[in-house]
Inverse folding.
């Protein structure tokens, strides 16, 4: 029954509209990928679709004896069949195979490829939204509730923070280690250096899942260039450099061979036993917009790739370097004058490493990304006070040795 319930939850999450829109359970680089880039690609797709179906995407110069029906047929055929580009000062090859090598196969499918690219940018966010709930905590609701208290009544704000503190405390207690032996220590050391290994009991589930999703974002934005190379030609990965070189050399916007406006089209007409071959010249007004769109997308993808890769490395560093987590918590506790002595420093480190652990610090970082330093400082202080009031911590504070006791369910359980 539990497995069926979990499967129903997963399937329901697919159909939930809230999974497709923005939320507060990630950072601005994630939203740069799954929200702003998706909106940008969707707008371009709608614009190009309107130009293709509501406008006049192709016009062809046909022989004078063609009737209106022949002209309409020529336009439709050349739009569907593909055209090819031969520079105006270059003779048209007489061999049919040489012409087919210059075919333009992308312009009819631009709206489809833009929407497919938008889906790929959204996919990592869908994975994150569907799977982070398996940790037992509603990330979006926790961050949203905290953010909503920033400008509210002080009494209500304090009550909300107390409620969130109590909820996080129960969640942390539910997933802590109840036994601490050599096998647990070995597993924790393994997870410390391989942060993609997710384990709720070791406090690395959310952190590992989030790092994996970050890796998906990085992989996606790099794969986009290879997809566009396969779709448009092997030249797209250097397209931006070509544009910059043209602008710096000629300082004019010249007609691009990558998105030609004037192309050629071959077609055959069967008349009784005779087959007549025609070659007509066509103009593609839609390429005027396609060119600008894909130039912008090249530079946009480079910007997104740099931001996403840097952000991924930053989160990897945060996950692997445990001192950064203790330092992050100590920073706020020091600002609030909670770290005065060496014992306070040791207690703050235990608070970060034994009580909050990777996932607890990760949640606090996400809350900080979507709220303010004042609010996250108040929340950390409330959680720190709750931590100090625990019987296991009160009993162990008389011991001055570094990490003299391990925070577990049993107050007298030592390392």
């Amino acid at each position: 029954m539990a497995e069926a319930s979990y499967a129903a939850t997963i399937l329901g999450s697919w159909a939930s509209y809230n999974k497709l829109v923005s939320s507060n359970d990630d950072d601005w680089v994630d939203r740069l990928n799954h929200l702003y880039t998706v909106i940008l690609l969707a707008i371009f797709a709608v614009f190009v679709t309107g130009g293709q179906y509501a406008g006049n995407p192709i016009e062809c110069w046909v022989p004078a004896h063609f009737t209106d029906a022949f002209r309409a047929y020529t336009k439709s055929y050349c739009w569907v069949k593909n055209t090819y580009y031969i520079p105006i000062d270059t003779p048209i090859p007489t061999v049919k195979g040489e012409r087919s090598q210059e075919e333009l196969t992308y312009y009819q499918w631009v709206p489809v490829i833009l929407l497919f690219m938008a889906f790929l940018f959204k996919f990592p966010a869908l994975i994150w939204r569907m799977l982070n709930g398996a940790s037992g905590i509603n990330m979006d609701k926790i961050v949203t509730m905290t953010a909503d208290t920033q400008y509210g009544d002080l009494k209500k704000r304090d009550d909300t923070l107390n409620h969130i503190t109590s909820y996080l405390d129960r969640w942390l207690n539910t997933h802590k280690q109840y036994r601490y032996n050599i096998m647990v220590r070995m597993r924790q050391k393994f997870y410390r250096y391989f942060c993609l290994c997710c384990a709720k009991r070791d406090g690395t589930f959310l952190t590992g899942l989030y790092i994996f999703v970050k890796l998906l974002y990085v992989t996606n934005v790099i794969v986009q260039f290879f997809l566009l190379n396969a779709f448009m030609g092997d030249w797209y990965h250097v397209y931006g450099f070509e544009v910059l070189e043209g602008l710096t050399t000629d300082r004019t916007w010249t007609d691009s061979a990558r998105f030609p406006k004037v192309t050629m089209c071959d077609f055959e007409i069967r008349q009784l036993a005779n087959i007549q071959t025609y070659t007509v010249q066509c103009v593609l007004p839609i390429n005027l917009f396609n060119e600008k769109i894909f130039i912008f997308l090249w530079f946009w993808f480079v910007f997104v790739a740099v931001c996403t890769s840097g952000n991924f490395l930053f989160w990897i560093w945060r996950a692997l370097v445990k001192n950064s987590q203790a330092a992050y918590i100590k920073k706020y506790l020091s600002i609030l004058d909670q770290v005065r002595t060496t014992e306070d420093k040791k207690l703050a480190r235990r608070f970060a490493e034994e009580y909050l652990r990777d996932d607890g610090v990760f949640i606090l970082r996400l809350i900080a990304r979507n709220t303010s330093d004042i609010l996250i400082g108040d929340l950390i202080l409330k959680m720190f006070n709750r931590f100090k009031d625990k019987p296991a911590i009160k009993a162990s504070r008389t011991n001055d040795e570094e990490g003299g006791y391990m925070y577990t369910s049993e107050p007298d359980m030592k390392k």
User: Anything to note?
Assistant: The mean pLDDT is 79. The first strand starts at residue 59 and ends at 61. The first helix runs from residue 2 to 15. The CA atoms of residues 121 and 220 lie 7 Å apart.
